[in-house]
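=== Structure Prediction Worksheet ===
Name of assembly: unnamed complex
Input type: mixed (protein and possibly other molecules)
Chain count: four
Listed entries:
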Amino acid sequence: MSTAQTADRTIFERRESEVRSYCRSFDTVFTSASGSTLTDTEGREYTDFLAGCSSLNYGHNDPDMKSALVDHITGDGLTHGLDMYTDTKADFLRAFDEIILKPRGMDHKVMMVGPTGTNAVEAAIKLARKTTGRKNVIAFTNGFHGMTLGALALTGNAGKRGGAGGVSLNDTTHLPYEGSLGDVDTLELAREMLRNGSSGIDAPAAFIVEPVQGEGGLNAASKEWLQGIAALAKELGALLIIDDIQAGIGRTGSFFSTEDFGFEPDMITLAKSFSGMGLPFAALLLKPELDIWKPAEHNGTFRGNTHAFVTARVALEKFWKDDSFAKEVAEKSDLLEKRLTEIARHIPGAYVKGRGMMRGIDVGSGELAAHICADAFDKGLIIETSGAEDEVVKVLAPLTTPLAQFKAGLDTLEDAVSASLSLKIAAE
Amino acid sequence: MSTAQTADRTIFERRESEVRSYCRSFDTVFTSASGSTLTDTEGREYTDFLAGCSSLNYGHNDPDMKSALVDHITGDGLTHGLDMYTDTKADFLRAFDEIILKPRGMDHKVMMVGPTGTNAVEAAIKLARKTTGRKNVIAFTNGFHGMTLGALALTGNAGKRGGAGGVSLNDTTHLPYEGSLGDVDTLELAREMLRNGSSGIDAPAAFIVEPVQGEGGLNAASKEWLQGIAALAKELGALLIIDDIQAGIGRTGSFFSTEDFGFEPDMITLAKSFSGMGLPFAALLLKPELDIWKPAEHNGTFRGNTHAFVTARVALEKFWKDDSFAKEVAEKSDLLEKRLTEIARHIPGAYVKGRGMMRGIDVGSGELAAHICADAFDKGLIIETSGAEDEVVKVLAPLTTPLAQFKAGLDTLEDAVSASLSLKIAAE
Amino acid sequence: MSTAQTADRTIFERRESEVRSYCRSFDTVFTSASGSTLTDTEGREYTDFLAGCSSLNYGHNDPDMKSALVDHITGDGLTHGLDMYTDTKADFLRAFDEIILKPRGMDHKVMMVGPTGTNAVEAAIKLARKTTGRKNVIAFTNGFHGMTLGALALTGNAGKRGGAGGVSLNDTTHLPYEGSLGDVDTLELAREMLRNGSSGIDAPAAFIVEPVQGEGGLNAASKEWLQGIAALAKELGALLIIDDIQAGIGRTGSFFSTEDFGFEPDMITLAKSFSGMGLPFAALLLKPELDIWKPAEHNGTFRGNTHAFVTARVALEKFWKDDSFAKEVAEKSDLLEKRLTEIARHIPGAYVKGRGMMRGIDVGSGELAAHICADAFDKGLIIETSGAEDEVVKVLAPLTTPLAQFKAGLDTLEDAVSASLSLKIAAE
Amino acid sequence: MSTAQTADRTIFERRESEVRSYCRSFDTVFTSASGSTLTDTEGREYTDFLAGCSSLNYGHNDPDMKSALVDHITGDGLTHGLDMYTDTKADFLRAFDEIILKPRGMDHKVMMVGPTGTNAVEAAIKLARKTTGRKNVIAFTNGFHGMTLGALALTGNAGKRGGAGGVSLNDTTHLPYEGSLGDVDTLELAREMLRNGSSGIDAPAAFIVEPVQGEGGLNAASKEWLQGIAALAKELGALLIIDDIQAGIGRTGSFFSTEDFGFEPDMITLAKSFSGMGLPFAALLLKPELDIWKPAEHNGTFRGNTHAFVTARVALEKFWKDDSFAKEVAEKSDLLEKRLTEIARHIPGAYVKGRGMMRGIDVGSGELAAHICADAFDKGLIIETSGAEDEVVKVLAPLTTPLAQFKAGLDTLEDAVSASLSLKIAAE
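=== Predicted Assembly ===
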């Protein structure tokens, strides 16, 4: 590392809050990014298996999105338009309608929320409570739904919850996610608890569930379990909110992660890769009969990011007009599963978790997982951990990663695993 | 209105949630924007006295920001970098350090929060509670701090609060803002209530206050009142959070709206115009001794919007390196006050409110204010109301509005007032 | 103090919780009590100016109540009957109907709650929330309403509130009681705050107010202020709950402390002296149209204490059939006011507070008040302090105290004041 | 029923709140009670298998308690003494110390709380939160702990919870009680949920558990399960509160219902039969190291009911000085189990639940159970239902019921079951 660069970095230590985190694991200064590759001030290149925590499903700086965005900017297209009508928003909505919603038979409406996932979650639970007249929202073990108080109450992680500084995170009930209690049938458990009028669990306004728990350790709920939750919600007069912020937009293979599961979510939260290019953007899809909002009853200055409308539209047109992208992702997912399974065999007790292009290896300890990721970074691969104990090495590569780079990245991961295991064995 | 355009618009009705609001007042489809002018699909031009609710203090599509942003994009600068180190972030932080913080003797650190004002507020109150071990946050009558549950609890408006769907908005106490109780000395009232150990108001973690209440009716607190609140906070061991989301970034004349007031806020929330060009961006400034966050204890996928770093830096360099911009704003503010005072004279009982370039006329009723704004829009001026009863016609023009256009806009406002008054008199 | 007695007392230290309190101020072991006199193990007699915190308005062991209770017990009258019908309850209800409710034109129904004041308060606020569909209950500075979580949220004292161990005491708003803010018109303030739709104070389900604040320092609200609160409650669609637990049952001269004030409370809480003889008993009076309870929706094992029905009935028949008792209390109240005013003159800055037989002297400091009470106890008078800083010496003598004993007690108080002042002067 | 009596009863309808409940099932007016027999205005006698919901474990009006109480009253013993020292309290504490605590090796201190079970529960959870600095209290499915807001939050029943009128019942987590989820190991489930740092369930201050759920359907937890909960509490740094309000004081055979279970509760709540004779009385036992209360930090006017001290002492001396009473209860419990098992055989699908003298038959439906109880009442037996669906016929006879009367009561129950079944069969 050059002296110049070191000097550069003091600005972060001096002026950026201690809350910063990824920069601690990936301790270099990045300057550019294209596709699945990041480059730092030293000119070193890194393959990105983190993809902005699934915000960059189409990779960095997709040339078509870039070009459309540059055209928009140079043509004085609106940057900030509150929630006024713009041709850019109309174009986006039409593309979303025709390419995504209509073909899937969905009549959901789009609520432009503040451009963060947590804002979509907050809007969803406010609406669920308003429409049902109930307060309790059911969330699940290991779930992550955001950091503002309403969403944080739905989040499982004790450390995150502790950030609230001691205020009660109310009006929620946390039930065990599928598989989180060994052999216990957690769906049956949810049924028993919620059907019992003396359980002490108040009648729910909604269930909120991530089909794959991105932060919680890549736990992937089965189709049957999610169908059961959907049916239970209906039985109880509660709404089903699918939090597709991390698992949606192709990450599991299809645009929505449960679109082939045979039930219709009342609401779906979208953020991360929804803008296509990593621009801040979030939305809540809601069934039209739930759309009882009064104008501005939930608002936010940056709702409906116009730049994001441009890139999101390009993403829809480029990747979702036919099924070729989905097929490509499916093939890559198979490859990923195969390779991770092979790698996991080297690690005693390890196993592969997740679904689609959202998979990882539970290596049994946060310490080992951290070693692997650190070693991978030294070898030019950006990859992070997940799970309650950070015990899962998580692969979240851009879905568009060229096959050769994808394979090379997995090779690097394998090398990092080997190196970490050797180190571990040497230490024992 | 052409048939084509009408057809265009059905997409909004069909697919966008009923929560949309500004599009109802400004019912046309905008296509481009530059400086203080918006253009719609019909080629009609509008002068913008709304400025994205003060998110566009430097106007639309500032050419230098555009150019820097286009260079960044075409050069494959990062779009999305989580909170990793980038040269773009370093450049922004350095500019903010040198142009803003250092000259003002501020040692605050910058926390990159999710790119919405409400997220900055949520981070601030979480931190206040964590550091003080107390839970109660004092907010003020007519205040607006955001729509996620933690921030919503601090917001005064009953309609907004009702959106929570019935969950309790806890751990807050609302006290009267300066001037909200006629002649009552609200500072003394706050002192009495909070010094009384039997008041039933729990010891506060923090006070959060907007120096000028943008949504609450352009109430501007005096220097003395704010000094008193600052002193009271200190006396009680509570933190002072200045919510400068709407009043900051030059809107009242200086970069921070209380920088000349002789006290140092423990935290300052920034959003809206902080990115310069209207891109989603928010941050929390906090005194270094408060920076006890653990890494990622508060996080968010879009914290630290890289595109916004580019434009925010340009804005700092272009407008704040010397005091010429501030002087220009001060002159425009004087003009604004003068003209509004003249206009208010025509309206029985009306009076001018606010501070700097954040001023309006309390016209006595929401109905009249709505008439004025609607008539102004017909005449090509975008302007909105504010206040508990929407009784204030609020001028939030870009600070950079050319003088001729600014005067013309005020002329249009005067015409709209006259027209609305005639209509009103005719109706009576 | 004899050795024997000292030995006796170790049982308290060994086995009774540190939460015990009055025994610390009145550090002897009492053995019997009659009228206004307590006797301890040493045979020493004490005049009781505490009266069980107004639970013994008719003095200790009234002979008629004793006799009726003994008859009931020896005749195998029910002791515990849950809320089944008993002739004893019927007799009590009939007496209450004919002697108290009917003559005052009150059609309230009686809800038998658990035999504690706090239980009556909890029932009242539950019902207010159920019937209005709102959650916020307005309480006042320096108010005391009980120690269970719902009632504690309405209580002002920070020390008491702190006992909750950090859980939020929610869904309440504390406004200043009459006179608690110097010259500020607190009624007008309440109006302004509650009529403002952007105050951040949610629409109230109810106001709960003590007409005289027994624990809060003997603040007595004026008729006009209470009328104003009653009218404001009606205007806002909120219920008015008069907490007459300490001020009711003759303490201020009339059976209910606001019965001559020209408004009708929606609910009245009663406890303390309601049983007549100091037996645990509490009830909630509620307007019949509010009586939407489902059977047992609020219950409690000891609701409707049968022994208390016996003594309460005797008390009603003995003291309230005509106005002779009320007149006697009125005369005694005048005497009390006169004597306290004289005594207060000796103390720089002191003044008399309260109403009826619920009066005291604000002596300016808790330290001096404690001295006075301790000295009075040494001289054979049981009397305690009140107020946020324990700065009020509070006279709560049984209303039946014989005139000679009452005067003698006041003489003792005067002596104690003199002694404490001499001591204080000597110390300075 | 005589006309006179009918007239009598109108007072209840006119003046007592609709919340009254037992009088609806047992629709007559009672006049006296002795042992296990109640007598009404018609002179009709009823055997009491309800016993004031276990408040009359020693029957009605025990002659020794009566006699001691009458002596106390006629001798001008104190009736109301706040928490001052009295010889009566000393005598009670000494008896409790010597007869109950010392022989069981318990060093708990006694906190005199307001004379209701719910007050003991509120005090317990306040103290648990204060001492641990945590807020979450774990309660169990079908549990009942009281009706004031803090205790209600721990109560399972949806109807009772609904009485709160919509405020959140916070800072509690409800986990399944033993056996409430079929074959699921609920202890293991509790362990898994609470050990998982991402479960969303905040670290508990305490567990509160009824060893037998009196209102919840006579579910009796096993020794092993309770030991497991005790161990889990210790592991997690949480306190164990045994709610022995209904199951304690001999109801299950021993004074405390878990005294032979090999663990030491941190706190035990007592009420109901603690006074011996049905007088309002409650207390919280707490380990001395938890006794961090400041004087009066939790208080209440009727804490330490002096009349109850008298009868409670007599009860301890009469029934608990040796093991003869316990043996008698054990024999009666065996008989009860045998007879209920026989009766249950007649009812398809029915089975016996409970422990000791706290047993009943789950008859499968609330309708049938109501029929049986109504028929039993017609036949002179007072007995009620329990359980989430009121599906359990619950026998709570006084422990002192003479054997012949006990058997006769069970015969009556058997007759009522037969009659109800015949009726049911006839109807089908």
